[in-house]
Amino acid sequence: MKIAILGAGKLGIRITEALLDGDYDITLIDTNEEKLNTLSQQYDVYTVTGDAKTIELLRSINVDTYDFLFSCTTSDDTNILAACFAKTLGCPRVAARVRDPEHMSQIDFICEHLGIDMLVNPDILITSEIYRYLIEKYTLSKGIYTSQNIGLIEFEASRLPMLVGKSLIDFRAMMPDMIMVSISRGGKLIIPHGNDVVKADDLIYLIGNKQKVFALAKIVHTKLRSSDARKVMIIGGGKTGYYLARRLAEYGSQVKIIEKDKKRCHYLAEQLRNVMVLNGDGADINLLAEEDFDQMDAFVTATGYDEENILLALTAKKHGVEDVISKISHESYNDLISTLDLDMVLNPLDITASTILKSIRGSKRVISSVLLQGQAELMEIHVESGMSCVNIPLKDFRFPEYILVAAIHRGSEAIIPDGNTRILPGDRVILVCLVSHIGYVEKLFRRTSFLSSF
């Protein structure tokens, strides 16, 4: 499969890295020749220096021979034009990253009349995850996800005290017909392993037989909480802050945005209805106190600076705000985040890359998928003979710590696996993988020189 990626920024590189282990011929296009030279030495990709939106360049690479093109340069206009030109020149599937609200307000028109198959907006993707957490309270419908006769349930560990303080080894002995597939702790989702211990404040995800999951739900789920996010403060009036404030205001929440840039404040005030826009430094604790930030139901940090987002989120949590969410873009903070007392931490790069990768791979072998708090993906994959994972005991396959085989559908049988379980051709495997490492799934489900697709 031939893939063209226009733009060698963070997103373009992330997608390239995720596809390297697959059966893909990747062409990376950018105007920065020095950067491309460096990348060509690191990765087995074909690089082209030039302007992505020129017909001459697209023709020079024979874009009509490519299966998929994704344009993710820093310019929305360039991305739209490049995707449109590529489609016109014969590339069957094209996608573009677009961030400006002006473009998003006419997304249907752009896709229909310019032939673009998908417009991806990182800010809207992360907004959707935050909204789902704040308003719906569960990332899963009523806290339960089902597939055939397997169910996934999420609940606070304190709702089942017998689990608190127990390791994953203890858990399997106590509940051998279920498997714990992930834990949300301090705003970070982790894939648990044998000696990891459940804490009272953890949000845990269990998979098991559907009927047993529904029975457990009667014990651990109180009536699904209606949203109590009546008052929300957002620090940072950039695109994420804009989209989130608009959606929360439409829901009926009282929203305050604090933004440093006065010109941006004027724009926000003109574009947003029923939103209070304040010009000021969100890092000014006195200002936050004057605006009663400790009386907020939710506090979201969405500035362009990870350090500021983390510190302000911790401050809000210290002052008793119930739901504190932070946008963090750099992976270097991952280890630190797991030690913090935040409710949710989202990386827009991870969510966007996951969305594009699913589009590239299609749905032939991935039967379904769902995001868990925007940080991990639950996937159901059809297994074929010749894949590297077939007929090997799971304990001998040496899965990395960021991936876990949660369940197996084999005909009408539902299997909760242990170390001796083998994956067989024809199985439908449910696995959980951190979004930041989603590319490894390519290697896992490789069939000789061909990979399973999403």
Can you describe this structure?
The protein has 454 residues and is an alpha/beta fold. Among the domains are: 2-120, Rossmann fold (3-Layer(aba) Sandwich), CATH 3.40.50.720; 231-321, NAD(P)-binding Rossmann-like Domain (Rossmann fold, 3-Layer(aba) Sandwich). The chain contains 17 helices and 24 strands. Strand 7 (144-147) and strand 8 form a beta hairpin. Helix 1 crosses helix 15 (348-361) and helix 7 (122-136) runs parallel beside helix 10. The two termini are 13 Å apart. Residues 449-454 have low confidence and may be disordered.
| Gross morphology | globular
Low-confidence stretches: 449-454
User: What is the CATH architecture descriptor of the domain at 2-120?
Assistant: 3-Layer(aba) Sandwich
Counted by DSSP, the helix tally is 17
In CATH terms, what is the fold-level topology of the domain at 2-120? Rossmann fold
Determine the N-to-C terminus distance: 13 Å
What does the radius of gyration come to?
Answer: 23 Å
Topology:
Blueprint: E1 2-6, H1 10-19, E2 25-30, H2 33-42, E3 46-49, H3 55-60, E4 68-71, H4 76-88, E5 94-97, H5 101-104, H6 107-114, E6 118-120, H7 122-136, E7 144-147, E8 150-156, H8 168-174, E9 178-185, E10 188-190, E11 203-209, H9 210-220, E12 231-235, H10 239-251, E13 254-259, H11 262-271, E14 275-279, H12 285-290, E15 298-301, H13 306-318, E16 323-327, H14 334-337, E17 344-346, H15 348-361, E18 366-372, E19 376-382, H16 394-397, E20 403-410, E21 413-415, E22 428-434, H17 440-444, E23 446-447, E24 450-451
Parallel strand pairs: 1-2, 1-4, 2-3, 4-5, 5-6, 12-13, 12-15, 13-14, 15-16, 16-17
Antiparallel strand pairs: 7-8, 8-11, 9-10, 9-11, 18-19, 19-22, 20-21, 20-22, 23-24
